[in-house]
Amino acid sequence: SSMFVFPHKLILKTCGTTTLLLGLRRLLHIAAEHAGFPFHNAQSVDDIHAAASPYRVFYSRKNFLFPDKQPGPHRSWKEEVKYLDDTFAGGSAYMVGKMNGDHWYLYITSPDVTVTPRTLDETSLPNSSKIPTNTAPTSKGGLGNNDETLEILMTDLDPENAKQFYLEHANAVASDRLYLQAQEARKMAIGNLGDLSGSTITIKTTSTVESFSDDALDVFDNCSDSDLHSSYTPVSEQTDAECMTTEGHALGTVISDACGLSEVYPTSKYPDARIDAYLFSPCGFSANGIIPAPQNQEVADSEKSTHYFTVHVTPEPVCSFASFETNVPGGQNGRETSEIVEHVVGIFKPGRFSVTLFEAKATHGYDDDEIPTSLARKKRLEKIQGYRRIDRIVHDFDDYELIFRFYERE
Amino acid sequence: TFSPSEGTPHLTINHNVAADLDSSSAFEGPEKLLEVWFAPTPDSLPAGAKPNGLKAVSSETWVSVLDMVNCKILSVLEAENMDAYLLSE
Asked: Nearest Cα to A331, choosing from A152, A196, A148, A156?
């Protein structure tokens, strides 16, 4: 699961049997109490019922795979919509895609709807009078100039690719990486010194993976090649002083590199990008990536914001699933959306996947009657190598456009 | 020598949670996604809001929301305009 906190919005994406919507009213209260956002349903912010009025709310999910295992309001879309309708007035709920196949749900409020924040305690609801939401117009016409979100939801992952996200496999990869690093260091040392006897090899490196490796590499001093191949020490077995990270984070970083995730937004194009990844035990993987605005490049003001991507993987064959989500704008000076989709799909090789592209109309910069300049860019998404596009559904909202595509392996 | 720029995000790990996490009994699956916006852009926060908006809220405060959701913080990647929380489950 992941959470992204911006000055003006919060994104919370949670997996499994989490009860995401149960945290919603607490979130609205915190926004009022700790961030100072306006509230209208209480006399004082000290009132625990005080809830900030949102500008806009999105809630979405893939169709339910195991609804009986879900607690709270998450057993059905109907219950989730009821929970949201009880909280916000004027929301709209949609189902996108095949009813009898993979589909996607969306609940959305618009800036000009009324909102009904209710109490934190459902057993003692106060009068739920309609409260106007925060609709203050802005100089930018109400929307960010560059708001688009791409989400890829993948099921039926290729079993061989899914193996990468098991602890056992990750340990082997980490061990092999250390072995190769040590061998490379030896070659360099031999080249420089001609004789290794009695010397100590120290490698100063840059990324989290290699930082993790620094301590472990000391193990390689004066070892034979045969010793090297089995000398990886799990972080969990190191002393506290040696632990610069946790094993889950260290192996998460190893797997990010090994599976190709680190190259989705390569540092050659996104120099300050950074990934925080975690490999769960015995399996499962989560990663967040931050792509800061370039510091020393001439970019438009609309580009000067920090973007994110996030990945979650459940590799077990019975319920294999992976998701990728990003708000890094496609095209411009970075990678095209179609390139991103092909790269991500190549990592997991799913049997089926959906792609949703949610884009503010201000982003693509054309009116409904004009020929969109980004059409060619979008058309590239129609053909993903090795897959047949089954559905393409467009929803035209007031200020957003949603394109849902569904693909199956050929 | 590695010289990160000022824009490079900073990582903080919650060792109390992340070091001994076991997902053996966890049921995973498709996620639920919630976005709550309080303003259209970071530079159009309403009157009364703190200059940093939601970024002014400490991670300790968010824990009370995440407790209700059944998630725990594994680590936080902090950047100038965004904090990225990696969560359990």
From this structure: A148
